[in-house]
Structures are given as C-alpha cells and as structure tokens.
Design a protein that fits this description.
This protein has 472 residues and is α+β, with helices and mostly antiparallel strands. The chain has 17 helices and 15 strands. The strands form 5 sheets. A 4-stranded mixed beta sheet has the order 2-1-3-4, with helices on both faces. The protein has a 4-stranded antiparallel beta sheet with strand order 5-6-8-7.
Length: 472
C-alpha cells in the first residue's frame, strides 16, 4: 500500500506487544517505520515527551499519537481505524511528525516490513531444514548452507523469481544476517559457496540465536545500552559497594530479559573505528555482564576445574565471532597474553579476533573485572569518556581496601594474588611491580612507607590468600 504519510512505531527488541503491533500492521499491508529504542536509546526521551508514556509500543499515524497495541486493536474494533488509514494514505508527513531513524549504510530507511520479512525468512530457513552442519577440513560450521540451496529454497518454497531470490539473499548478506564462512566480504552467489547465519554457529554462546533487527549496529551504542541496563539492575540487586550480588533477584527481574535481548545485538555490532577507551570500557562492561549472565543461566562454579571450564566456555558472540570470558580478559584486554592457567595464548596466528586485541596489556583492568568471587574487585560499569578516572579510582580503591598492606616494622608487603597471577603486566621485577602499585597510593601513609621500602630495597612480599566463594 502506498502512503503519502507515514506510520511510525517506537519499539524495543523482545517486546511481545511490539511484535504483535508489527504483525497487525503487516497483515493490513501497511508499511511502517520502526524506531527500536534498543538501537536508538537516545530517542526514548523524545517518545516519552511526545506521548507522556514510558512503555512500548507507541504508534503514530503522521503526527497523531494512536497509543499502544491495544489502542490500535480498539480502533480497528470500533471501525475508526479506516479513517486513520485514509488520512495517512492521502496526507503528506507534517513537520510535527516524529522523524524516521537515520538511514542505513545502503542509503535506505529500514522499514518494518523489510525487517520482518528478512527475520521471518531466516526463521523459516531454520524450521524447514535449509540450515545444516557442514564440515570443511577440521571445522564444522553449524547453521550453514550452500548458496545454491538457498536460491533453490527461495524459488521453490517461497515462490520467488530467480532474480528476486538473488536480491533477497544479497540483502541478507548486506544487512548482516548471513555471511560467507571464511570471507566476511564475500558477496552472495548461487553456487556451492558455503554461508552461515551470523552468530548461530556458536550455539553455546549465551547470546546465540537469531538477533532482532538486521542492520549493522554501533558497538559503542549497544555497549552503552547494556551498561545502562546493568547499572539499573545493579541498583536493585547489587550492594552499593559492589561486592555482593543477588543472582536470584536478577534472574527474576523483568529488566534482565531486556538485557538478554540486548546482548543478542552484540552479534552484529561493528568494532571498526572504536577508540582505545571505547574498546576497553566496552569489553570490561561485557565481561562483568557476561559473568553475571553465566551465573544466572548456568550456576556458580563449584570447584577449580569447573571454574576453569566456566571462564573458557561462557561466551558471547560479538561482531560474528565467539568471545569467552578468557578471550575477553586475556585475548582482548591483555593484548593476547597467556592466562594464569593456560599454556597457549587465546588467539592463534590468523585469528580474526587478533585485530580487536589491545596493542599492549592494560594492567588496571585487573581491578575492574569481577569474576563473581568474594576476592574480586567490586562490580562497576565504565564509560569511555570517564575511563581514565574510573580505572585509576578502581585500582587505588582495591589496593587501599586490603589489596596492598604494608608493615613498616617487619618490612613485609602483603599483596593480593591478582598481582602475582598477572605479574608480567606490572613490570619485569618485584621492584617494578611495587613501583607500579606505589604510583596509585603514593599520597597515602601506606604509599609513603612502601616508597621508603622500595628505595632501601628492604621489602619482603607476602602473598595473601584468595576467597573464591561466590559473591552473593
């Protein structure tokens, strides 16, 4: 149906009434524009200001606010919806109507019908056996398919013309839904080339599956949105000082379901063009969130072996690649360094994730990452624009809260074993390590005593024990 005006809806990924609204509009053959507040969190204030409501969906026919899903159904039941449709068919978009989201990389607005159509096709592919597991030498690609098989399915089961089938498959590649198994830049082809569903070849990842939305997303925006959700959850289920977590409370909180849906968006973010501060803040926040998600979904590790598996297996798909907790900490934030119980580096030569890794380890992350144990630093969430201040504060706070205890009489320096496990990040010698520590506490009594011991070389390091019990 051609409209001179526009139908615009504010939604959130995972919202059932939002999906019902889109399905209803599609059944009426009404094209619409969607503003997903997970993708465009900065539009939330605008929606609340225009509607005086903070729930979704909110539907606009040009500049007329219809309301939510049940308001739309009431209009249809009462016979008033036809008049709204006639107005939006024949009346141009007024300047007072909400503006559409920014155009995507292809120069086209993402309309709801195009969005729903591609998502539905992907679900049909899964349900009708198009997606299979295929082996290439030593690698098994789950939820994959040959280009010619997708074309045959689109022309046969979906009854598209050959050219429409090629165009549809090409759209799925351009929108980041499917990708060549070895070359992300490879265009779609009606051939024996193997393609896969982005993110779905990592079924154990906690954000695996088909993500809502088709456009490539800004990693910075998604990271900020996850930070806001987790900060909100923290306010209700994590003590103010950040040391104790109510995991059962988080699990039953409706906002956690929103977090899970938002985490799926990480599958198709773009990591290119991120500043160092943006990358560090994002991966610290993802790590701390993923630990909580892992405990809520799979339970707390009960011993050292289970703990090792937990940190190597609990993962998210980010930008089409799988990142475990170990990959994030030691691969990305520690510049692809060996973990304390590992024989190899997380990323081998040729691993595409190497391009994401920092050029050198960032030592302060050890006082920002929380592994769900009582010996860990408290849970905090970080912002790129405040990162330096926040990391310095976190480091100083941890050291002065028992992480570094200096005895001037015995010359003993009692340190958290975190500094021992990752000693390579703090210098080449014990003196280097203590100088690094002293740099954060130099203006305190503890720091002044430590500096004197370093200068006279009359110190003895004693390693503290570590409390691995769950921080609940």
């Amino acid at each position: 149906m051609e409209l001179r005006g526009q139908i615009l809806i504010y939604t959130e990924s995972g919202c059932k009434e939002c999906m019902n609204t889109k399905t209803k509009l599609e059944s009426l053959l009404l094209p619409y524009i969607e503003i997903d507040l997970v993708v465009y969190p900065d539009r939330r204030f605008e929606m609340e200001n225009l509607t005086d409501r903070d729930t979704v969906p909110q539907i606009f026919f040009n500049d007329h606010h219809v309301g939510g899903y049940y308001d739309l159904i009431d209009l249809e039941t009462s016979g008033q919806l036809d008049s709204f449709i006639d107005k939006v068919k024949n009346t141009p978009i007024p300047e007072t109507a909400p503006r559409p989201p920014e155009v995507n990389a292809n120069g086209n607005s993402t309309t709801g019908i195009a969005l729903v159509k591609l998502e539905n096709l992907l679900l049909k592919m899964a349900n009708q056996g198009v997606l299979q597991s295929h082996r290439r030498i030593l690698t098994v690609y789950h939820n994959s398919f040959h280009g010619r098989d997708l074309v045959a399915w689109l022309t046969g089961r979906e009854m598209l013309s050959y050219q429409d089938a090629l165009n549809t498959a090409g759209d799925m590649v351009q929108q980041g839904l499917i990708v060549h198994v070895t070359d992300p830049q490879h265009p779609f082809a009606d051939s024996g080339q193997l393609f896969k569903v982005v993110g779905a070849d990592f079924p154990s990842a906690l954000n695996s599956g088909i993500a809502q939305g088709c456009t490539e997303l800004s990693a910075v925006k998604i990271s900020e949105n996850l930070r806001k959700i987790m900060t909100s959850l923290s306010g209700r289920h994590i003590t103010e000082e950040g040391y104790k977590v109510n995991y059962e409370g988080i699990k039953s909180d409706v906002e956690f379901a929103k977090f899970v849906m938002t985490a799926q968006s990480l599958q198709r973010v773009s990591l290119s063009g991120m500043s160092k501060q943006e990358k560090i803040a994002m991966f610290i926040n993802i790590y701390n969130s993923l630990v909580v998600h892992g405990i809520v979904s799979r339970g707390a590790p009960s011993n050292h072996l289970v703990r090792y598996r937990f940190f190597n297996n609990v993962s998210y798909v980010i930008a089409g690649h799988n990142y475990s907790l170990n990959d994030i900490e030691n691969g990305v934030l520690r510049a692809n360094s060996k973990g304390m119980a590992d024989f190899c580096k997380p990323f081998s030569a040729g691993d595409p994730r190497l391009s994401v890794a920092l050029e050198s380890p960032e030592p302060r992350i050890h006082f920002a990452l929380n592994c769900a144990s009582r010996g860990c630093p408290p849970i905090r969430f970080y912002s790129p624009d405040k990162l330096e201040t926040q990391l310095n504060r976190a480091t100083k706070s941890f050291l002065l809260s028992g992480g570094c205890v200096v005895n001037s009489e015995t010359h003993q320096v009692s340190l958290s074993p975190i500094l021992k496990w990752y000693k390579a990040d703090f210098g080449k010698s014990e003196s280097d390590m203590l100088r690094w520590v002293c740099g954060f506490i130099s203006n305190t009594d503890e720091g002044r005593v430590l500096q004197e011991l370093i200068d006279t070389k009359q110190f003895k390091i004693v390693w503290q024990g570590y409390d691995w019990s769950l921080n609940h």
